[in-house]
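Input.
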Amino acid sequence: MSETPQALGAPVVRREGRDKVTGTARYAAEHRESGCLYGWIVPAGVASGRVTAIRTADALAVPGVHTVLTHDNAPRLEEPDDPILAVLQDDRVPHRGWPVALVLAETLESARAGAAAVHVEYASTGHDVVLTGDHPGLYTPEEANGGHPGLRERGDAMRAFEAAPVCIDAVYTMRALHNHPMEPHASTARWADGHLTVHDSSQGSTAVRNSLAQALGIDRDHVTVLSEHVGGGFGSKGTPRPQSVLAAMAARHTGLPVQLALPRRYMPAIVGHRAPTLQRVRLGAGRDGVLSSVSHEIVTHTSRIKEFVEQAAVPARIMYASPHSRTEHRVAALDVPSPSWMRAPGEASGMYALESAMDELACALGIDPVELRLRNEPPVEPDSGRPFSSRNLAACLTEGARRFGWSGRDPQPATREEGPWLLGTGVASATYPVLVSKSTASAQAAPDGSYRVGVNATDIGTGARTVLAQIAALVLGTSPENVRVDIGSSDLPTASVAGGSSGTASWGSAVHKAATALVRRIAAHTGPIPPEGISVTADTGEETAQESPYSRHAFGAHFAEVAVDSLTGEVRVRRLLGVYAAGRILNSRTARSQFIGGMVMGLGMALTEGSTMDPAFGDFTESDLASYHVPSCADVPDIQAHWIDEDDPHLNPMGSKGIGEIGIVGTAAAIGNAVRHATGARLRELPLTPDRLLPYLP
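Output.
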């Protein structure tokens, strides 16, 4: 069939948008079941130790309370595939906030009141929750998140650094960050005739199904997990979370449907976080700005439950040419909640430090920060020597500088003023890897000329339904409106998680392959399409099993203009501009939304967001949106996202790269560099709150 013009790239309106704004889209906690019980977790009140007694009589006396589950009476689980799912199985307390009981009641209010009436006694042990650069428990792991080696060395970075004419040696600090999606983590579970059905707020219902089946000791065919609409996740819903296991356990124990939605103040302890990092960056360069040595060392924490190491040093392995390099991660296991994915894990943290150090180097050399980056463009990936499938960072920097009006910038800091406001501009580069996972999709042609595509993708607000319809329409030679897309159910063909900016590439490749096979099947068919239609199924196992000979990454450049109040220390971002090289853009409307969303999250990372670990109590003090400050519309008066045309034949049938995460990478550094340009003060700890800035202002 012929290709329909504008099937890809057109600003097609998100097809579920009306359902969301009118309230007809149903989220995990909005499914009503007859006789449903509502759950409320009792969190551990100590940071380390064991439960010695749980008294539930007062809770059971609360009107409407049905059951209280503890480690004494909760159903036994098989060993789960993730240790954080082994809830209510023993008396241990690995960190403050760990679930030690679950109250089930006829109303949410009764469940909450019952939870407050549960009395728990502990044998508390000393806890250790503070990350330091010289912590005695630090070690170098074999691997960081994503399977990256914990340590990589090329040449002799230290000797080259000491011999370099110009050196930067700086430590950058980031506190923990929390995902805080608009929709809290929630699950509604029911059993019927031995079959478990769970509506779950998840970025991948296939993974949740598999984890529940393993933990509950049942066949995967006896579990259906539905994630039809998800109100954001940013990585925190990328793996199964305890509320899904607790809801399934409780429904099995009581024989009734159970709904469990986490209160926001419980989320910091239960659903993961971006771990804090102490990052030392050492750059050695000649007086012409060409790098001779790059060293990036990370110190971070993990929990005592499992090892998760933020791969923040990995971007330094691919960004800039240098004959000598050393990148290392070190981690300490503390009595803290388990860290996990948060939007652009590794890249968001690591590129803040690296791009801040590059700005420091530009200042030390008196070289324009854009020009410095251009002088250190590598011909191949420095770490592996593989050629880039495409690398248009230089084009992003050049085009961004033109759009931003960078050429008129006075390089001298603290020279522009408007009344009490000090003005400055900054730039930073961005990168994110191209990831793809095996997925399966079905495609069906109906007698009326319409089509139906099925794939267990998850739409976490990115417009997956719309873009997958566009991909199918391109192959089928029809309009996207003529293609129905079924997603969000583990009963559909298996698909990968919506994470790592890999969703569209993974699901889209399977949809493209299935649609292509359907076109061939229809061409070989004689006569009209039968009443039951013509169907095919295809998977991308063969394609994803092959390791690419190319280094595949998206790139971008961020430019920021800030105003700093010299009287209060308040920082206002006046302009943000992002220019990206992300392969073929499949839907300009939803792509721009994702780029801007990432940039806004990067603004929060730079100026307002941060979670503080209380050393005395062993928990995060910012436990709600009144204390954990995310940006609002008033914080981003002028934000623009653009992209360059990029034809990369080494990716997937669509020629696309992931776009969900690159928007946050580098944004915080660009803002921090702009603050330095405005004030002359180089602050190396995020967020850049007024109390930190005031001592450096005139």
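Confidence is low (pLDDT under 50) at residues 1-5.
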